[in-house]
Amino acid sequence: MLTAHRCWVYGDNVNTDVIFPGKYTYTLKTPAEIAAHALEDLDPGFASAVQPGDVIVAGRNWGCGSSREQAVTALKYAGVPVIIAESFGGIYFRNCINQGILPIVCPGLRAHVQTGDTLLLDLEAAAIQAGGQIFTFPRLSPSVQAILDAGGLVPMLQRRFAEGA
Amino acid sequence: MTGYTFAEKALARAAGVQAARAGDILDITPDLIFSHDNSAAIRRIFEQIGARRIVRPERVAVTLDHAVPAPTPQHAQNHAEIRAWVAQQRIGRLFEVGRGICHQVLSEEGLVLPGETVFGADSHTTHFGWLGAFGAGVGRTELAALWATGQLWWRVPETMRITLTGRLTPGVTAKDISLRIIGDLGVDGGAYRAIEFAGDALATLSLDERPVLPNMMAEFGAQSAYLPPDDAVFDYLEPRRQRDYTPLYPDPDAHYDAEYTLDVSALEPQIALPHQPDNVVPLSQALGQPIQQAFLGTCTNGRHDDLRAAAQVLRGRTVRCRLIVIPASSQVLLAALQDGTLQTLIEAGAAIGTPGCGPCMGNHMGVPAPDEATISSANRNFRGRMGTPDAPIYLASPYVVAASAAAGCIADPREFLSC
Ligand code: SF4
Q1: Buried (b) or exposed (e) across B247-280, using 16+ Cβ within 10 A?
Q2: Which of A141, A145, A158, A159 to mutate to test the interface with B (most CBs of B within 10 A)?
Q3: How far away, in angstroms, is A12 Cα from ligand 1 center?
Q4: Whether complex ipTM tops 0.90
Q5: Which domains can be identified in chain A, with CATH numbers?
Q6: Out of A73, A154, B27, B254, which could bridge B250 as a Cys pair, Cβ 3.0 to 4.6 Å?
Q7: Would the CB atoms of A67 and B139 count as touching at under 8 Å?
Q8: Domain B272-417 has what CATH class?
């Protein structure tokens, strides 16, 4: 199935401090509050303009730096279902899966889209259509996909243990 | 010979699959899972998950090391909860207050072996690369998941190879090599990669020095770091191990996405200035800076060789500032007692603490006052790391720490060693 997504395009080495500032990590708790500060120090216009279904298209090493999980949940709560990057910070990639948001590693895409463009995502085919081209990306392993489908690591294990009990 | 890195081989083994490549996602069953004073917090996530029993408790270890002996009733309560949990879950190994720091103790106990994979709820789990193992730090949620299921998903990392050539000169150590690498390439120079060390300099490093390299790679952004194990490592493990193992080595045609080479022969002592481990300069640029406290210890540089290096500098001298010495383990303490190292340090004026992390992360036993400068043999000098935000921390080798303690200001150990 093809789904259409508006793009927000960013560069290389975007760290988690600018995705979600450290000063809020212990004070903001509700999803709406956290989402309101997404990308605050990278793109101040983002939080008020983002629409559910929009996606991030980034360069290399998206989400490097501190391991804080709010740098993932802020985007999730803002309605971003998928983050596409040429590569991810390793801990950020894990946090995405564990928090139930899909990270797609897709080198080459960023040069072909600009903020505001629409891309078409085909999850079954593991492919993206944008700028008149098709880009394929590696699938997640079934076990990792299962974590995403459950909404994250804690909910997945909760379900598993509730069923097993 | 099909071009596999160490990380690719180790993780394929731990996942029970034929082969794996960087980028693949695998379900890893680690050979050892460990946590420390954070075990009570992990227990709460474990219970939230709804799990009842730790699977494979015989492959779980817990050390009490981060605040030992307990400095406050809260810490004591935390330790008490952990002891109760260990008994309830029949966790295989608990290392009590005074035994030492997780990375050092688990190495001494032979609980991690070449070719194995270890996940710990501690960012310096990279340490176990000195044994030729794949060690990586995980978050508390992930450690709770490991207790609950015995497995964790993992993306096989790309690898950077760091080749060390030549031979260190007297008074220069693996700590100086590590600081130089991080200084050259930055705190994200390893950017979640696995690091493989290579080169003829490795075999010249003592077994006490080798762990410094992978330990410090946590400050490089690396996920894991590896040294190829040799006979010296196998001999070390032989009386300690409880199971067989098969060491793993990278293929000669393995793919590296980055390479870095350092000739260590010309290296001088290095020092990291406040407040980041990559704020590194040659020691000569920091000489004379007054310090109020010197700290020798931690998982990075609290081993027997480290204490001996300090004793070599301090023999017959008296410190001119506080010197706190905390051996990384009870075995280190005993060895330093038996060969007279401890006596030399005490006669020079050192205060000796219970094996553990000590003031490394600011819990107790050597927290500086505001504006007091500390020179430390640890791995991190972030603002506030030792518990006081306005207290600058300098990172250097045990030689430099001892020489600075003797001088009351940052000093070059080579001047002390030559006379
Ligand atoms: S000595 Fe310091 S760096 Fe090492 S485990 Fe303890 S707190 Fe962490």
Answers
A1: bbbbeeebebeeebebebeebebbbbbbebbbbb
A2: A141
A3: 31
A4: no
A5: 2-137 (3.20.19.10)
A6: B254
A7: yes
A8: alpha beta
